[in-house]
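Customer escalation, tier 2.

The customer says the design service returned an amino acid string that "doesn't look like it belongs to this structure." They asked us to rerun it and document both sides in this ticket. The original structure tokens are below, unchanged.
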């Protein structure tokens, strides 16, 4: 998950959908992903203990325990969907890229060839531990990429509105927090960006 921390038009965290592809097969996949706004959710009780362990490990800045807890969450996720479990590796400070118009950091990523999820547990500048909610959200994001590729027949796993909403549902479900339906705003180039101000005001049903 590559996140823009700022751009010339909108300072702060910016999460944007991918550009709409032009190739017919990719466009059809993009539309299917965009329309799929939900997934079958696992029993949340199977995750709470490992999620609590993840929070404690991050607070203690224990890299090994953080990786163990994140891996356990990935195993439970894979078991629910009866798919191969992805590998999980926890690394240090986030890779950071600065240009004249933006600053981006990689919070996590997913390797298509090896099904390995990598998560960075420290911020890019001052190297402080990543906030628990941010880290768990990144893990859920990468798990949804894995699900797209190996189960939902969405091999390019585009960042669509549907993808972000599926990842958000998983995050709130395993954390046991109320779902906030995402509010979208138009973005140049036919894309969409999450309107965080309106989203944070939006308290939907659990």
């Amino acid at each position: 998950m590559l996140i823009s921390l700022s751009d010339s038009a909108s300072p702060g965290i910016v999460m944007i959908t991918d550009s709409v592809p032009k190739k017919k097969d990719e466009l059809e996949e993009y539309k299917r992903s965009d329309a799929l706004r939900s997934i079958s959710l696992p029993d949340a009780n199977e995750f709470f203990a490992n999620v609590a362990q993840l929070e404690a490990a991050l607070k203690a800045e224990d890299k090994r325990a953080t990786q163990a807890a994140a891996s356990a969450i990935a195993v439970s996720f894979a078991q629910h969907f009866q798919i191969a479990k992805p590998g999980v590796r926890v690394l240090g400070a986030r890779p950071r890229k600065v240009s004249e118009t933006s600053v981006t950091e990689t919070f996590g990523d997913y390797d298509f060839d090896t099904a390995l999820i990598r998560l960075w547990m420290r911020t890019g500048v001052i190297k402080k531990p990543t906030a628990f909610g941010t880290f768990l959200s990144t893990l859920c994001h990468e798990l949804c990429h894995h699900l797209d590729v190996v189960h939902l027949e969405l091999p390019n796993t585009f960042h669509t509105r549907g993808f972000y909403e599926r990842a958000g549902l998983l995050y709130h479900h395993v954390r046991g927090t109320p779902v906030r339906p995402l509010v979208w705003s138009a973005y140049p180039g036919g894309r969409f960006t999450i309107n965080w101000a309106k989203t944070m005001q939006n308290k939907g049903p659990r």
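Tier 2 assessment: The sequence is consistent with the input. The chain has six helices and eight strands. Helices lie at 24-35, 45-59, 63-81, 132-150, 161-175, 196-201. Sent an explanation to the customer and offered a walkthrough call.
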